[in-house]
Amino acid sequence: MTALNSTGEKELVLRLKDGDRKAFELLYHAYKKRVYNNLLKLLHSDSHAEELLQEVFYKVWVKRDSLEPEKLFPAYLFRIAANLVVDHFRRAALDQKLQAYLIASGTELYHHLDDLINYKDSQEQLNQAIALLPPQRQKIYSLCKIEGKSYEEVSILLGISTSTINDHMVKASRVIKSHFFGSKETAVVFLLTYMLNHT
């Protein structure tokens, strides 16, 4: 089955939410290959990838009442898959090398906040993190990161130096990163979700 457009996807999610099995089957066939391939890249096991694929869609069906049609369905799938992969690794008692890989990868992702905040499903958390900043810092961060203005443009707009803007941005990024990665386990979940959505 070919990829769904946003209108077709939303309609199917609405039908699924009402318990329509045919809509569930159509969504399953539209996304199963993509989810499976991404799980396989992380797990390196056909059987484990297939097992988790079935569990992803089982959870979708069981929790269909909580679906939000306005949100991207693939992002919902990837979030479920990421949590299942974390659970799988925990059950399998990760060896030291794999633990080191996840921690190192999580640290690398921590330093690439721009990539993470472009992930649409994280928008609500980003807004919550920005709300923690002082008013002036909120304004500067929003102008630079959300609206894409340069430090020079913001300097002229607000009448402050670019070095002051840089200082605000460094401090703002520190708060926002801390909000996103409050714990090592949270960081790993974000890492796996990001990897599933960008591979």
In CATH, the homologous superfamily of the largest domain goes by the name RNA polymerase sigma factor, region 2, helix turn helix motif
The helix-and-strand class reads mainly alpha
Tally the structural domains: 2
Give start-end ranges of low-pLDDT stretches.
109-121
Number of helices, counting only DSSP H or I runs of 4 residues or more: 11
CATH architecture of the largest domain: Orthogonal Bundle
Largest sheet report: none
Helix content: over 70%
Report Rg: 20 Å
Q: Count of DSSP E strands?
A: 0
Give the SSE map:
Layout: H1 6-17, H2 21-43, H3 46-62, H4 73-91, H5 96-110, H6 113-117, H7 123-131, H8 135-146, H9 151-158, H10 162-180, H11 184-198
Commentary on this structure:
This protein is an all-alpha fold and 199 residues long. The chain has two domains: 6-93, RNA polymerase sigma factor, region 2, helix turn helix motif (Rna Polymerase Sigma Factor, Chain: A, Orthogonal Bundle); 114-180, Winged helix-like DNA-binding domain superfamily/Winged helix DNA-binding domain (Arc Repressor Mutant, subunit A), CATH 1.10.10.10. Helices cover 77% and strands 0% of the residues. It has eleven helices and no strands. The chain has helices spanning 6-17, 21-43, 46-62, 73-91, 96-110, 113-117, 123-131, 135-146, 151-158, 162-180, 184-198. The longest helix has 23 residues, at 21-43.
